[in-house]
Specification:
This protein is α+β, with helices and mostly antiparallel strands. Helix content is 16%, strand content 61%. It contains 1 helix and 9 strands. An 8-stranded antiparallel beta barrel has the order 1-3-4-5-6-7-8-9.
């Protein structure tokens, strides 16, 4: 009986560790490669993740610096940046998949200015 209980406890621990290993944590600095109708760019995103909540700072040559808000649910990431480019207010909406601890990819919505794609690598 003790052996069965020990095996069950070991199995439960293995399941818990596997579940924790599958949780994405994007905290840190990422270099994005963005392709859109507006052209190619390489902004930087510094994320802080607390559970599913995502905050941080976005920096690009065109838009300057802006705060990030978003979520991480499983391997899915979504974040939004409100920028002002030469007097035009624009909301950048990123939606993607975290492929590994060091890479992600997805799409970008620029509202009336079209859509694009992005990849990102952890710095």
């Amino acid at each position: 009986m003790k052996q069965i209980i020990a095996i069950l406890l070991l199995f439960a621990c293995a399941i818990t560790l596997a579940a924790q290993a599958g949780k994405a944590d994007v905290t840190g600095t990422w270099i994005l490669s963005v392709e859109s109708a507006a052209g190619a760019s390489s902004p930087t995103a510094t994320f802080k993740q607390e559970g599913e909540k995502l905050t941080g700072q976005y920096t690009s040559q065109l838009a300057g610096e802006a705060p990030i808000t978003g979520t991480v649910k499983g391997q899915n990431i979504e974040f939004t940046i409100a920028v002002d480019i030469q007097g035009t207010k624009l909301e950048l909406r990123y939606s993607g998949t975290i492929e590994s601890n060091t890479s992600m990819k997805g799409t970008l919505s620029l509202g009336e200015f079209g859509d694009g794609t992005f990849t990102a690598k952890r710095k």
